Amino acid sequence: MTLDLGPGAPFGGPRAGPSGPRRLAALAALAAFCGLGVLTWLRVGAVAARHPMVGLGLPEIELASAAPCASGAGDARSRFAFEPPGALIYISNSCPHCRAQLRVWSGLLADRGGAPPWVVVAPGESFDSTVIPARLRRRVALDHDARIARVLDARRVPLTVYVDRHRRVAARAEGRQSGAEIARLLSAIGAGPTPSRTGDCP
């Protein structure tokens, strides 16, 4: 948008203009107009940022557990179906933001209890279980063929997907979240302090 300042001196130059109450009224009107534009942009941006899968059902996901209790003496893997309500966190071994987000989850679990989310590790990297905090190691899966990445449309990590008890995707968050935000979303999907233990270590 271009503001027409009228003929005469360029912006900032000497020119006659409204004074006193008229000038204040003009400035107030301009501020209100600009504020409305910013609010409209923010609303449009928030709608555009909503991922298409939010509100839809999550397809069945089989998780190849890499937890110590499931992997046995080496390459053996136990397989579990993801059972909502709950969350899946898609990470990369080498991502520092992913490690920081897992520490937030670990602290939250220490405070509120409950079973951890499923941590899904991206393919193409050697898996290092030491990057997973101890409280989260009961539910760790390796996405060997990137199948889960395709289901979750994982393009940035960490990616957290929250699924309610009806298997609908209630929220999808790319990047880091605070413990308070995670707790709010877990409560919203009905993931209480003692969710399903399917796939947990003994």
TrEMBL record:
Listed transmembrane segments: 24-44
Keyword annotations: Membrane, Transmembrane, Transmembrane helix
Membrane keyword on record: yes
Protein name: Thioredoxin domain-containing protein
Species of the source: Gaopeijia maritima
